[in-house]
Design brief:
Oligomer: single chain
CATH topology of the largest domain: D-Maltodextrin-Binding Protein, domain 2
Radius of gyration: 19 Å
Number of helices: 11
CATH class of the largest domain: Alpha Beta
CATH architecture of the largest domain: 3-Layer(aba) Sandwich
Structural class: alpha/beta
Order of helices and strands: EHEHHHEEEEHEHEHEEHHEEEHH
Strand order of the largest sheet: 2-1-3-10-4
Shape: globular
Number of strands: 13
Number of domains: 3
Length: 319
């Protein structure tokens, strides 16, 4: 191919992630011309409501996938955590670049972590998953919904009287910005979103040339980890409003997978850990889902599905 059109969101982070992909493409194919097509998604337009109340997953990818299907672009670059488990017919994930740090992080007025932040402090987050895990650990905290890009949320930390906000480590690293008082949260305390820190390179199934060009960008350990996590996501079913997370780590010849589903009604957490050989990545993710569903997860998902129809899920779950 002489020219590749890459579709992405317009945010600073999306463009920074796309630039990383472009640099890798040009490193392997220096003669290829690359054009970035900036696309506004539904999630970019809705900034005054928590994602769990307006549709969650798919909000940041739908319009970009439509551009792929209409052959307006050759390749889409997404944040993996924004991607639903089921892709539209005709589209596929073609490569998995090396994953960035998948942990969540607390950014506070001081260098607080989850244990040391003052009692009753106000903490902002855009994620119901983060909010419920934080409430489980620190029920005394006031958790408030905030939306916007990293810069916007950092401004709100100070302008809206918050003590801290929760961000993804990967976003701060890819933006290359220094954030004072940024404290990573270990997986033992907060399980990240499925695919957090990874990029999704999506193309049309019939575009053989793009598939070939992107082969050198694939990082095998990341592919195995994401395969595990997305198998869990698919097996769990439910909708984008489900506050669950999962993190797969490749260690030698095996995959260690930890997953959580928060139970808002009982203010508790269903947790599972499953390990197995690399070649069983999908089965490991599916087995973890079966374990959580068998512990009552199926009833939690059913309840959340019913609650979503009634309006603001965030207020109901954190009241």
């Amino acid at each position: 191919m002489k020219k590749i059109k890459i579709g992405t969101r317009k945010s600073k982070l999306a463009l920074a992630q796309t630039q990383l992909v472009i640099e890798e493409i040009l490193r392997h194919y220096p003669g290829v011309e690359v054009e970035v097509v900036k696309i506004t998604t539904s999630g970019d337009k809705i900034l005054d409501s928590p994602l769990s109340s307006v549709g969650g997953k798919g909000l940041f990818v739908k319009e970009i996938e439509e551009a792929l299907l209409k052959k307006q672009i050759h390749l889409a670059v997404h944040s993996m955590k924004d991607l639903p488990h089921q892709l539209p017919d005709g589209l596929t994930l073609v490569a998995f670049p090396k994953r960035e740090d998948p942990r969540d992080a607390m950014v506070g007025q001081s260098a607080w972590d989850i244990h040391t932040i003052p009692k009753g402090a106000k903490v902002g987050t855009s994620s119901l998953r983060r909010a419920l895990q934080l409430r489980f650990l620190r029920p005394d905290l006031q958790i408030l919904p905030i939306r916007g890009n990293v810069d916007t949320r950092l401004r709100k930390l100070y302008s809206e009287g918050l003590s801290a906000i929760i961000l993804a480590m990967a976003g701060t690293k890819r933006l290359g910005i220094h954030i004072p008082n940024l404290i990573p949260i270990p997986f033992e305390l907060m399980v990240p979103a499925i695919g957090q820190g990874a990029l999704a390179l999506e193309a049309r199934e019939d575009n053989i040339e793009v598939k070939e060009i992107l082969k050198p960008l694939n990082h095998k350990e990341t592919e195995i980890a994401i395969t595990t996590e997305r198998a869990f996501l698919k097996a769990m079913g439910g909708g984008c409003q489900v506050p669950m997370g999962g993190i797969a780590q490749v260690k030698g010849g095996s995959v260690d997978f930890k997953a959580v589903l928060m139970d808002p009604a009982h203010k508790s957490a269903l947790v599972t850990q499953v390990s197995g050989p690399l070649e069983h990545a999908k089965a490991i993710g599916a087995r973890a889902a079966q374990d959580i569903l068998s512990k009552g997860g199926d009833q939690i998902i059913k309840m959340l599905s019913q609650e979503t129809k009634g309006g603001d899920l965030w207020q109901k779950m954190l009241s």
